[in-house]
Amino acid sequence: MPLVVGLFRQASYSPHQHRTNDTAILDRTLEHFAAAGWATAHLDETTLVGSAAALPPAALYLSMCQGEAASRTLLALESAGATLVNRPSSVLGCHRHRLVPALATRGIRFPQTDIVDPHDAEAAAHSAVVRDAAAAERPVWVKRGDVHAERDEDVVCVPAHGVADALAAFAARGIRRAALQAHVSGPVLKFYGVADGRFFRSYDSAAGPNGPRPDVDETRLRALAFSAAAALGLDVFGGDVALPAPDDPVLIDLNDWPSFAPFRDDAARAIAAYARDIAARERSDSSPFDTADADVA
Known about the structure:
Layout: E1 3-8, H1 18-35, E2 39-44, E3 60-63, H2 68-79, E4 84-85, H3 88-93, H4 96-105, E5 113-116, H5 121-125, H6 128-136, E6 140-144, E7 155-158, H7 163-172, E8 178-182, E9 188-194, E10 200-204, H8 218-232, E11 236-242, E12 250-256, H9 264-282
Parallel strand pairs: 1-2, 1-3, 3-4
Antiparallel strand pairs: 5-8, 6-7, 6-8, 9-10, 9-11, 11-12
Protein backbone atom coordinates (compact mmCIF):
# COMPACT_ATOMS: atom_id res chain seq x y z
CA MET A 1 0.00 0.00 0.00
CA PRO A 2 1.68 3.28 -1.08
CA LEU A 3 1.96 6.09 1.45
CA VAL A 4 1.08 9.74 0.82
CA VAL A 5 2.14 12.32 3.40
CA GLY A 6 0.27 15.59 3.69
CA LEU A 7 2.39 18.49 4.92
CA PHE A 8 0.15 21.13 6.48
CA ARG A 9 0.96 24.83 6.33
CA GLN A 10 2.29 26.60 9.40
CA ALA A 11 -0.60 28.39 11.10
CA SER A 12 0.99 31.84 10.83
CA TYR A 13 0.84 31.60 7.03
CA SER A 14 -2.92 30.97 7.14
CA PRO A 15 -4.43 34.01 8.87
CA HIS A 16 -8.08 34.24 9.91
CA GLN A 17 -10.45 31.85 8.11
CA HIS A 18 -7.66 30.70 5.80
CA ARG A 19 -6.36 28.51 8.63
CA THR A 20 -9.47 26.37 8.62
CA ASN A 21 -9.78 26.40 4.84
CA ASP A 22 -6.13 25.51 4.20
CA THR A 23 -6.42 22.54 6.52
CA ALA A 24 -9.71 21.49 4.94
CA ILE A 25 -8.47 21.33 1.34
CA LEU A 26 -5.53 19.10 2.27
CA ASP A 27 -7.67 16.91 4.52
CA ARG A 28 -10.19 16.48 1.71
CA THR A 29 -7.46 15.65 -0.80
CA LEU A 30 -6.03 13.00 1.53
CA GLU A 31 -9.51 11.49 1.87
CA HIS A 32 -9.53 10.86 -1.86
CA PHE A 33 -6.21 9.05 -1.55
CA ALA A 34 -7.52 6.92 1.28
CA ALA A 35 -10.57 6.02 -0.80
CA ALA A 36 -8.23 4.95 -3.60
CA GLY A 37 -6.41 2.54 -1.27
CA TRP A 38 -3.45 4.66 -0.19
CA ALA A 39 -2.10 4.90 3.34
CA THR A 40 -2.13 8.50 4.53
CA ALA A 41 -0.20 10.48 7.12
CA HIS A 42 0.14 14.13 7.93
CA LEU A 43 2.71 16.43 9.48
CA ASP A 44 2.84 20.12 10.26
CA GLU A 45 5.30 22.45 8.53
CA THR A 46 6.86 23.37 11.87
CA THR A 47 8.17 19.81 12.34
CA LEU A 48 10.36 20.21 9.25
CA VAL A 49 12.31 23.29 10.27
CA GLY A 50 15.99 22.40 10.30
CA SER A 51 15.63 18.68 9.64
CA ALA A 52 13.73 16.23 7.46
CA ALA A 53 14.18 13.47 10.04
CA ALA A 54 10.49 13.56 10.96
CA LEU A 55 9.47 12.67 7.41
CA PRO A 56 8.72 9.01 6.71
CA PRO A 57 9.73 7.68 3.29
CA ALA A 58 6.68 7.91 1.04
CA ALA A 59 5.54 7.51 -2.53
CA LEU A 60 4.22 11.06 -2.54
CA TYR A 61 4.30 14.24 -0.47
CA LEU A 62 1.50 16.78 -0.74
CA SER A 63 3.06 19.97 0.52
CA MET A 64 1.32 23.16 1.55
CA CYS A 65 4.50 24.32 3.34
CA GLN A 66 5.17 27.97 2.62
CA GLY A 67 7.94 29.16 4.92
CA GLU A 68 11.55 29.55 3.86
CA ALA A 69 12.94 27.20 6.52
CA ALA A 70 10.64 24.25 5.87
CA SER A 71 10.90 24.67 2.11
CA ARG A 72 14.68 24.60 2.28
CA THR A 73 14.51 21.41 4.34
CA LEU A 74 12.32 19.84 1.67
CA LEU A 75 14.75 20.81 -1.08
CA ALA A 76 16.92 17.86 -0.04
CA LEU A 77 13.98 15.52 -0.73
CA GLU A 78 13.35 17.17 -4.08
CA SER A 79 17.02 16.78 -5.03
CA ALA A 80 16.92 13.12 -3.98
CA GLY A 81 14.05 12.44 -6.39
CA ALA A 82 11.07 12.42 -4.04
CA THR A 83 7.70 13.21 -5.61
CA LEU A 84 6.34 16.46 -4.17
CA VAL A 85 3.24 18.45 -5.07
CA ASN A 86 4.10 21.36 -4.87
CA ARG A 87 7.88 21.19 -5.10
CA PRO A 88 9.72 23.38 -2.57
CA SER A 89 11.75 25.04 -5.32
CA SER A 90 8.47 26.27 -6.82
CA VAL A 91 7.15 27.43 -3.45
CA LEU A 92 10.30 29.42 -2.77
CA GLY A 93 9.91 30.97 -6.20
CA CYS A 94 6.54 32.40 -5.12
CA HIS A 95 8.13 34.56 -2.43
CA ARG A 96 7.74 38.03 -3.91
CA HIS A 97 11.42 38.98 -4.11
CA ARG A 98 11.91 35.93 -6.35
CA LEU A 99 8.51 36.01 -8.05
CA VAL A 100 8.90 39.51 -9.49
CA PRO A 101 12.10 38.88 -11.49
CA ALA A 102 10.96 35.38 -12.50
CA LEU A 103 7.78 36.73 -14.08
CA ALA A 104 9.59 39.66 -15.67
CA THR A 105 12.14 37.46 -17.43
CA ARG A 106 9.32 35.36 -18.90
CA GLY A 107 7.27 38.29 -20.12
CA ILE A 108 4.27 37.59 -17.88
CA ARG A 109 1.83 40.52 -17.78
CA PHE A 110 2.46 41.93 -14.30
CA PRO A 111 2.43 45.44 -12.81
CA GLN A 112 5.63 47.37 -12.32
CA THR A 113 7.03 46.28 -8.96
CA ASP A 114 10.11 47.35 -7.02
CA ILE A 115 11.56 45.23 -4.21
CA VAL A 116 13.01 47.47 -1.50
CA ASP A 117 14.42 47.30 2.00
CA PRO A 118 11.84 48.90 4.32
CA HIS A 119 14.71 50.20 6.46
CA ASP A 120 16.16 52.12 3.47
CA ALA A 121 13.96 55.17 3.07
CA GLU A 122 16.28 56.63 0.43
CA ALA A 123 15.88 53.63 -1.88
CA ALA A 124 12.11 53.76 -1.54
CA ALA A 125 12.10 57.47 -2.32
CA HIS A 126 13.78 56.72 -5.65
CA SER A 127 11.37 53.93 -6.58
CA ALA A 128 10.00 54.35 -10.09
CA VAL A 129 6.70 52.87 -8.88
CA VAL A 130 6.29 55.61 -6.26
CA ARG A 131 7.42 58.36 -8.62
CA ASP A 132 5.01 57.30 -11.38
CA ALA A 133 2.14 56.87 -8.91
CA ALA A 134 2.67 60.36 -7.55
CA ALA A 135 2.67 61.84 -11.05
CA ALA A 136 -0.52 59.99 -12.00
CA GLU A 137 -2.17 60.50 -8.60
CA ARG A 138 -2.63 56.75 -8.21
CA PRO A 139 -2.14 54.62 -5.10
CA VAL A 140 0.69 52.18 -4.46
CA TRP A 141 0.38 48.66 -3.10
CA VAL A 142 2.90 47.92 -0.36
CA LYS A 143 3.29 44.19 0.27
CA ARG A 144 5.61 41.91 2.15
CA GLY A 145 8.47 41.01 -0.13
CA ASP A 146 9.15 37.56 1.25
CA VAL A 147 6.32 35.16 2.19
CA HIS A 148 2.66 35.83 1.53
CA ALA A 149 0.55 37.82 3.95
CA GLU A 150 0.45 36.60 7.54
CA ARG A 151 -1.83 39.45 8.68
CA ASP A 152 -3.89 42.24 7.16
CA GLU A 153 -1.10 44.79 7.51
CA ASP A 154 1.15 42.75 5.19
CA VAL A 155 -0.70 44.10 2.14
CA VAL A 156 -1.78 47.73 2.16
CA CYS A 157 -2.84 50.25 -0.48
CA VAL A 158 -1.67 53.80 0.19
CA PRO A 159 -1.25 57.09 -1.68
CA ALA A 160 2.25 57.72 -2.99
CA HIS A 161 2.98 60.14 -0.15
CA GLY A 162 2.06 57.42 2.37
CA VAL A 163 4.59 54.85 1.15
CA ALA A 164 7.31 55.99 3.55
CA ASP A 165 5.05 55.54 6.56
CA ALA A 166 3.88 52.13 5.32
CA LEU A 167 7.47 50.99 4.91
CA ALA A 168 8.38 52.32 8.35
CA ALA A 169 5.60 50.15 9.80
CA PHE A 170 7.04 47.14 7.96
CA ALA A 171 10.53 47.94 9.25
CA ALA A 172 9.25 48.25 12.82
CA ARG A 173 7.95 44.68 12.54
CA GLY A 174 11.34 43.41 11.37
CA ILE A 175 10.34 42.80 7.74
CA ARG A 176 13.42 43.00 5.54
CA ARG A 177 11.86 43.12 2.08
CA ALA A 178 8.85 44.95 0.72
CA ALA A 179 7.27 45.04 -2.71
CA LEU A 180 6.08 48.39 -4.06
CA GLN A 181 3.54 47.54 -6.75
CA ALA A 182 1.78 49.83 -9.19
CA HIS A 183 -2.00 49.88 -8.92
CA VAL A 184 -3.93 48.36 -11.83
CA SER A 185 -7.44 49.68 -12.34
CA GLY A 186 -10.46 47.51 -13.00
CA PRO A 187 -12.25 44.59 -11.33
CA VAL A 188 -10.18 41.82 -9.73
CA LEU A 189 -10.71 38.13 -10.37
CA LYS A 190 -9.51 35.37 -8.09
CA PHE A 191 -8.49 32.15 -9.83
CA TYR A 192 -7.59 28.59 -8.83
CA GLY A 193 -5.96 25.92 -10.98
CA VAL A 194 -4.17 22.59 -11.36
CA ALA A 195 -1.21 22.54 -13.72
CA ASP A 196 -2.48 20.20 -16.42
CA GLY A 197 -5.69 22.19 -16.85
CA ARG A 198 -8.10 19.62 -15.46
CA PHE A 199 -9.27 22.21 -12.93
CA PHE A 200 -9.64 25.97 -13.32
CA ARG A 201 -12.12 28.31 -11.67
CA SER A 202 -12.35 32.09 -11.22
CA TYR A 203 -14.71 34.63 -9.72
CA ASP A 204 -15.04 38.34 -9.06
CA SER A 205 -13.35 39.12 -5.75
CA ALA A 206 -15.93 41.79 -4.90
CA ALA A 207 -19.05 39.84 -5.88
CA GLY A 208 -17.85 36.51 -4.48
CA PRO A 209 -18.01 33.03 -6.02
CA ASN A 210 -21.78 33.14 -6.40
CA GLY A 211 -21.95 36.65 -7.79
CA PRO A 212 -21.74 37.94 -11.37
CA ARG A 213 -18.40 37.95 -13.15
CA PRO A 214 -17.15 40.90 -15.20
CA ASP A 215 -16.59 40.43 -18.91
CA VAL A 216 -13.26 38.70 -19.49
CA ASP A 217 -11.53 36.96 -22.36
CA GLU A 218 -11.48 33.47 -20.85
CA THR A 219 -8.77 32.23 -23.21
CA ARG A 220 -6.41 35.05 -22.24
CA LEU A 221 -7.25 34.65 -18.56
CA ARG A 222 -6.38 30.95 -18.61
CA ALA A 223 -3.26 31.53 -20.69
CA LEU A 224 -2.00 34.13 -18.21
CA ALA A 225 -2.73 32.01 -15.14
CA PHE A 226 -1.20 28.81 -16.50
CA SER A 227 1.82 30.59 -18.00
CA ALA A 228 2.56 32.19 -14.63
CA ALA A 229 2.22 28.85 -12.81
CA ALA A 230 4.44 27.15 -15.38
CA ALA A 231 7.08 29.86 -14.97
CA LEU A 232 7.41 28.81 -11.32
CA GLY A 233 6.78 25.11 -11.88
CA LEU A 234 3.67 25.08 -9.69
CA ASP A 235 1.35 22.08 -9.73
CA VAL A 236 -1.42 23.54 -7.55
CA PHE A 237 -1.88 27.29 -7.61
CA GLY A 238 -4.11 30.32 -7.37
CA GLY A 239 -3.86 34.06 -7.70
CA ASP A 240 -5.45 37.35 -8.63
CA VAL A 241 -5.76 39.25 -11.89
CA ALA A 242 -6.92 42.79 -12.51
CA LEU A 243 -8.94 43.64 -15.60
CA PRO A 244 -8.25 47.12 -16.95
CA ALA A 245 -10.06 45.77 -20.04
CA PRO A 246 -11.87 42.46 -20.64
CA ASP A 247 -9.20 41.28 -23.07
CA ASP A 248 -6.24 42.53 -20.99
CA PRO A 249 -5.91 40.51 -17.74
CA VAL A 250 -2.94 41.54 -15.57
CA LEU A 251 -1.58 39.16 -12.95
CA ILE A 252 -1.25 40.92 -9.60
CA ASP A 253 -0.54 37.95 -7.33
CA LEU A 254 0.35 34.25 -7.58
CA ASN A 255 0.05 31.75 -4.72
CA ASP A 256 1.19 28.20 -4.17
CA TRP A 257 -1.69 25.92 -3.13
CA PRO A 258 -4.47 28.26 -1.94
CA SER A 259 -7.48 27.04 0.03
CA PHE A 260 -9.83 26.51 -2.96
CA ALA A 261 -12.57 27.15 -0.38
CA PRO A 262 -15.42 28.02 -2.79
CA PHE A 263 -14.71 24.88 -4.85
CA ARG A 264 -13.19 22.57 -2.26
CA ASP A 265 -14.78 19.25 -3.19
CA ASP A 266 -14.16 19.52 -6.93
CA ALA A 267 -10.67 20.91 -6.35
CA ALA A 268 -9.66 18.17 -3.90
CA ARG A 269 -10.84 15.50 -6.33
CA ALA A 270 -8.84 17.07 -9.17
CA ILE A 271 -5.72 17.61 -7.07
CA ALA A 272 -5.76 14.02 -5.82
CA ALA A 273 -6.19 12.61 -9.33
CA TYR A 274 -3.44 14.86 -10.70
CA ALA A 275 -1.03 13.94 -7.88
CA ARG A 276 -1.73 10.22 -8.32
CA ASP A 277 -0.94 10.57 -12.03
CA ILE A 278 2.33 12.33 -11.18
CA ALA A 279 3.26 9.59 -8.71
CA ALA A 280 2.40 6.86 -11.23
CA ARG A 281 4.66 8.41 -13.87
CA GLU A 282 7.54 8.54 -11.43
CA ARG A 283 6.94 5.16 -9.80
CA SER A 284 9.55 3.44 -11.96
CA ASP A 285 12.30 5.72 -10.60
CA SER A 286 14.88 4.18 -8.30
CA SER A 287 14.40 6.82 -5.59
CA PRO A 288 14.15 5.39 -2.04
CA PHE A 289 11.03 7.48 -1.56
CA ASP A 290 8.80 5.70 -4.06
CA THR A 291 8.32 2.24 -2.56
CA ALA A 292 7.45 3.06 1.02
CA ASP A 293 4.50 1.72 2.94
CA ALA A 294 5.57 2.82 6.39
CA ASP A 295 3.12 2.54 9.29
CA VAL A 296 2.67 6.11 10.50
CA ALA A 297 0.16 7.22 13.10
